[in-house]
Amino acid sequence: MRPAEVAARLAELGEAGAALARRPAPEIHACLARVLDGWADPGSAWRRELEARLPATTGFDPATLGEGLRRGFGCWSGRDLLELVRAELGDAEVSGFDTTAVLLAGQIPMPSLLALLAPLALRSPVAVKPASRDLVSPALAARSIAETDAELGRSVAVLEFPGDDEGCVRALCGAGCVVANGSDETLARVTARLAPGRRFVGYGHRVSVAAVGAGARGAGLEAAARELALDVALWDQLGCLSPIAAYAAGGAGPAAELAEALADALAGLATRLPRGAIDAVAAARVASERAEAEMRAAAGRPVALRAGAGTSWTVVREEDARLRPAPLYRFVRVHPVADEADLLDALRPLARHLAGVGIAGFGDRTPEVARALAALGASRVCPLGRLQSPPLAWPRDGRPVLLPLARLASLESGG
Q: Residue 56: which H helix or E strand, with range?
């Protein structure tokens, strides 16, 4: 696709938006709710096609993909969408922009669907540039919208071009509102290409972790480890809500116990929910960090490594709370912390990039710990095992879902 074609598609969307603006908002919301209900139904044609086609493009194992979709869409419904609209927009005079452009990143399908639905809920036509590793989800989402409502379908365009095509990126940034997902460097590059007067909404690099309190012992610790292993295994640790590290309160002993239980749980999941494909560069990173941990252990440091066949999963029991590289693809570090205060100190360097924290073992202190983690910067604090199932209304990066894409007006009558 050439820059002129991108600009032409944006112009066509602007024309479609004029018709969209004339439709009653509740009618559009009802259509979008039907779309979401279709995706939430495991038996729908759209869902079945997604499960059939996505493994080839993303590398996810079919069983792991199916479980991720089941849990991800399990708490999304048309009713949830309507409640989100009421909660964020209410009776306010709200509209979207003439066009909204979205640059996607990653390969988890639920954000791709929401990226299309959110602007349309504001009656703004949307142009989406898919992520390079998932060309399937946005196209299927667009088709599901068109099959539900033809006019809404004409208000959606999926534009494929290389992410490093500066001309096409600049043309796409001519939309009234531009939403970008990706690394902080990607966001800076997009910002530099925005046309004057455009709204920009950026979602940059984020990470998640687990925190296990001193109350998790025996069967409770094993249960926490199983739930943590599930959060790690789903989407092969490639999403912003995938925990890259676990912090065990109580010191070295609890950290060692958690590391062992987590390794056992990941080993068990390796058969039921296998890890997907991994390229040579990612595999080399995993191997390098494993070797580094082994060298520290051989030097007498209190470090331990357990790993699955090949690069299928890795658990490193660390000697302290120091941040270390996270190779992903089911590679988890378990860090000891003395107590809750030490936990917060350990996470403070991550605060700017913190997305979610899965917690267990804090007992009556759970509400206070959750509030402290939220104050630190986490936009999602939940029990372990639920990180990969955020509600539709999850305030990603601490922001509402719809309002960042909206134009608000105050209409006042004079006396």
A: helix 45-58
Which residue type, as a one-letter code, is found at position 112? S
pLDDT in tens, 1-50: 899 999 999 999 999 988 898 999 999 999 999 999 999 999 999 999 99
CB 36 within 8 A of CB 112: no
Residue type, 395: P
CA distance 15 to 13: 5
Residue type, 293: A
Provide the residue ranges of all domains of the chain, joining segments of one domain with +. Answer: 3-205+396-409, 207-383
357, 381 contact by CB (below 8 A):
yes
Which amino acid, one-letter code, is at 41?
Answer: D
Beta bridge partner(s), residue 102:
128, 179
Of 3.30.70.1560, 3.40.50.720, 3.40.309.10, 3.40.50.2300, which CATH number belongs to 207-383?
3.40.309.10
Q: How far is CA 97 from CA 18, 196, 255, 299, 399, in A?
A: 11, 14, 50, 60, 18
